[in-house]
Amino acid sequence: MLLVLAVDLDDDLGRKTGISTPVLGRENVEDAATRLATADPEDSDVNVLFQAIHTRDQLEREDEEVAVAAVTGVDGSDVKANRAVGEEVDTVLAALSTGENVRAIVITDGAQDESVLPVIRSRVPIDGLRRVVVRQAQDLESIYYTIKQVLGDKETRGTLLVPLGVLLLVYPMVLIANAFDVAGVSVLGVLSGALGLYTLFRGLGLEEAIDDAAEDARQLLYAGRVTLITYVVAAALVAIGGWQGYQAVTADASNLSLPTQTAVFVHAAVSWVAAAGVTSSLGQVTDEYLDGAFRWRYLNAPFYVLAISIVLDAVSGFFLPGEGAMAMTDLALALTAGTLLGVLSTLTFAIAENRFPASAEAA
C-alpha cells in the first residue's frame, strides 16, 4: 500500500483551523485543506494538502492501493516538531490496519519540512518526495521561484552546481599551481578527470546504488545480521587469494605462457576463494535460520563451493609447469570427488527436507 503523506512541520493546519491531527482519509484531508484555505488563502500548506489529494487520486487511477493523510508538528522547536510528526505517523500507520507493506510518498512545501524525512523514513520506507512550488503569473516571479526551486532541490543542485563549481575553479587552481612551480596542465588534468568521474557517476545513476548499499549495510548492522561479518571476512579472504595468485604468477611470469599463468593464479588463489565462499554461505544460512526461514537445501551452498574448488584446484594443478603438475590419475580422482560431493549433498539435504521439514516449510 502507498501512503501519500502531507507534512506541515509548524502546524499551520492545527493552529489556524483547530483541526485535530493527524488527518486520515481523502474526504477528511480535503475538508482540512478547504478550511485552511478559508482561514489563510496565502498559506503554502494549502497547496500541500491539495497536492496530496491530487497524488492520491492519480495513483488510484493507476490501480494502486493508496491512502492519504496529513501530519503536523509544532510551532517552534525543530526537535519537538520532528518528534510530534513521528508520533502522528505512528498513529496513521496503526490506523491503516493493513497486512501489506506500507510505503510513503511525502508531500512538502520546502526544505524546512523536509528536515523531518529521517524521522518518517525510520517508520516507513519512502518511495518518493514531492515539493510543491506555486507557479506565479509574472515572468520575474516565475524566474525567482524557478531558481529557488532549483537551488533548493538536492538532486538538481548537485547536478548543475557541482560541475559549474569545478569549472570555475580551473583558472584559480592553475594560478595557484604556477605559483608553487607545479605544471598547470597537471592541475587541469586532475580537475578534468574529477569532473568526468562526477559526470559519469551521475549519468549512470550510481548514487542510488551507493545509497541503497549504504542503507542495506545499515539495516544489516542494526538487525544484528551475521552476514555483515561473514561478508567482510569473505572479502578479506578473496583479497588474500588474489594476492597469493599474483605472487605465484610474478615469481615465474617471464617463463610462462598466458594459459599457464592463469592455471598458476587459479591454483594459488582457489583455496582462499573457496574459504570465502564457505564463510559467506554459512553466514547466510545462519541468518535464514535466525529469521525462521531455514531450508535444508540452503546447506548445499558450502558443499557446492567445496566441490567447485576441488575441481578448479585439480584442473589448474594439472596444467602447472614442471614437476608440480598433477598426474592424470589424481585429476580423475579429484573430478570424481568433486562431482560426488555435489551430488551427495543434494541428495542428503533433499531427503532431510522430506523427512525433517523446517518450521517455515511445515507452516
From TrEMBL:
<keyword id="KW-0812">Transmembrane</keyword>
<feature type="transmembrane region" description="Helical">
    <location>
        <begin position="158"/>
        <end position="176"/>
    </location>
</feature>
<feature type="transmembrane region" description="Helical">
    <location>
        <begin position="298"/>
        <end position="319"/>
    </location>
</feature>
<feature type="transmembrane region" description="Helical">
    <location>
        <begin position="263"/>
        <end position="286"/>
    </location>
</feature>
<feature type="transmembrane region" description="Helical">
    <location>
        <begin position="182"/>
        <end position="201"/>
    </location>
</feature>
<keyword id="KW-0472">Membrane</keyword>
<feature type="transmembrane region" description="Helical">
    <location>
        <begin position="331"/>
        <end position="352"/>
    </location>
</feature>
<dbReference type="Pfam" id="PF04123">
    <property type="entry name" value="DUF373"/>
</dbReference>
<feature type="transmembrane region" description="Helical">
    <location>
        <begin position="222"/>
        <end position="243"/>
    </location>
</feature>
<protein>
    <submittedName>
        <fullName>Putative membrane protein</fullName>
    </submittedName>
</protein>
<keyword id="KW-1133">Transmembrane helix</keyword>
<dbReference type="InterPro" id="IPR007254">
    <property type="entry name" value="DUF373"/>
</dbReference>
